[in-house]
Task: structure prediction
Amino acid sequence: MGKCKNVKATELCELDINIGAQAYGVVEMFMVIMHLKHAYETGRASIYGFIAFCKFPKDYNWYFLLFALEGAYFICILVQIVFAFLLYFLGIRKKKLKICKIWIVVSCCTIILGFVTCMVTWYIFSGFYELYLIYGIWVTIEYIKTMEQSEVQVAPAEVKRDSAPAGVKKGSAPVEVEAGVGVNVNE
Result:
């Protein structure tokens, strides 16, 4: 069998990781509009469920876990909405990698709680909205790797701005290049 090529997240659409991460951040901010719909549905269902459980505890024993799960999913969706905006404006635009890492954790929790809630309630269609988060996690991890590598490859501090390459006098005219050979104009 042949070897698999290691594909980076934005290599599929031939974008730079910085542009790809910013594009995904914008998509994430639009996708949280659908999360508002889920927050309304799960929040309303869990509140009604808790009220029914308090009134008729014997009839709703097994449903208590479902209502608790929907309540946890509701809270996770609200946190996801907040971190969607933090990811774009602070994490990607301001290059705060800690925000990106927290967004990954929040997204993993949203995916897990979303799929568990979908399996229990059979609202399969609402679980498909969470699939875009898997690609977003991939893009964000690649973005973090790229930013961490670029921080390591920064030029050393002792290099001075006015220093000239070896063999070139300071204050001499610029070097012209002909056929790959450097020639000093003053000589």
